[in-house]
Amino acid sequence: MELEEQIAEWRGYVRRRGAVQDTDAEELEDHLRNTVSDLVGSGLREDEAFLVAVKRMGSLDDLSREFAREHSGRLWKQLVLTEHDSAPAAVPLWQRDWVIMLVCAAIAAIAIKVPALFGYSLSEGDRGNFYERNYALFATAPLAVYFAWRRRLAPLALGGLIGLFALGVLGANAYPLGPNSQSTVLTAIHLVIALWLAVGLAYVAGDWLSDRKRMDFIRFTGEWFVYYVLISLGITVLAVITDGVFNAIGIRVGNFINEWMVPCSLLAAVVVAAWLVEAKQSVIENMAPVLTRVFTPLFTAVMLAFVVAVFWTKTGIDVDRDVLITFDVLLALVLGLLLYSISARDPLRPPGLFDRLQFALAVSALFIDMLVLAAITGRIEEWGTTPNKMAAFGENVILATNLAWTAWLLIEFIRGHTRFTRLEQWQTRYVGVYALWAWTVVLLFPPLFDFM
């Protein structure tokens, strides 16, 4: 392997460490190049000099300490400096990342209770489905504020972010949607997707055109999901224990738990989970490959078994609405797993068994998606169009397109006809299609279907 290819591989590894910014990566690369140059001057070949230079850099701990002392305001100082290494913080308390995180988490926890001042209560029923339609706003707005501060958004990007959230407020509240309206549920689901991708604009510091930064956001999303699920499980256990111990002494705290503890904690956890991902990048980076290598074979086995069963029994998918929803959830999980796998993979590693597993997963998911599309088309022909059916049809067409091209790029990569980066670019650029569809459902479906 040529020296430049080796350095490019090393650079990709360093930049995937969330604690290392682009400017720091460039500085580290200069250090590496200088070391290689010195070793070559001592008589080593370039490939030997590169290996020795990387070995000398080790796990970057020494260099990390050096950088941490120069940039003492960074969170990763806490991860690489020991107690004895730490110097007094030069950054004011109110500018520290964990303080901003706590403020944004507190805003999220308090904001969910503000509507109660105007007669909206979670325990007494969601009047006019207010919480259902606006939950995405409560969950994502504080997170957007956190990243806007952390990334120091430029005025133009900040204006775009505010505009997207204003559009979300309009889509959630401007239409006269009844409590049993299909559009209410569709708005609630798709607004989460639309606003999460709006958070992505803040995460990438407004540079949405960068494939690398969009891939970083995809990786962040998967890691955030892992942390959020773990925190949510902890909140559930805490709520059960709290209820049990207080009931043991005759104090009923069920209303407090349902009205305050659980909803406020779950909203605050959205920001806390994001902060943990950002703070622990060097740790969580090792979780991504592990999780994908555990679940990809399992999902592939299940999907292939289902495909074989369909051919064996020669039956299609039951057109029952709940069954179709189950399949859509399954396909969404498969796509998420593929995205997470792609984001965690070293793009310079040659194709292997795991890539073939991903190809099998994509092909089997595509086959199931086509069965689902056939079932939805049958329901539309028999019963006519509704918001739910058209939303499901559109989403499955979008998923089928993504899975089909993903499968093609994977087989081309496995055959050695293309680079893995083409697959990365396809996935990161296709994110815009999901955003466009989500906003279409939120803003256009209610009036198109007469708010039914």
Report on the structure:
This protein is mostly helical. It folds into three domains: 3-58, no CATH class; 96-281, no CATH class; 286-418. It is built from 18 helices and no strands. The protein has helices at residues 3-16, 22-41, 46-57, 61-70, 77-80, 97-111, 130-150, 155-173, 182-203, 211-247, 254-279, 281-284, 287-313, 321-344, 353-383, 387-414, 420-443, 445-448. The longest helix is centred in the middle third of the chain and has 37 residues, at 211-247.
Q: Which tags fit this structure?
A:
single chain, about 450 residues, 3 domains, globular
Please give a quick description of this structure.
By secondary structure, the chain is mostly helical. Helices cover about 75% and strands about 0% of the residues. The chain is globular, with a radius of gyration of 25 Å.
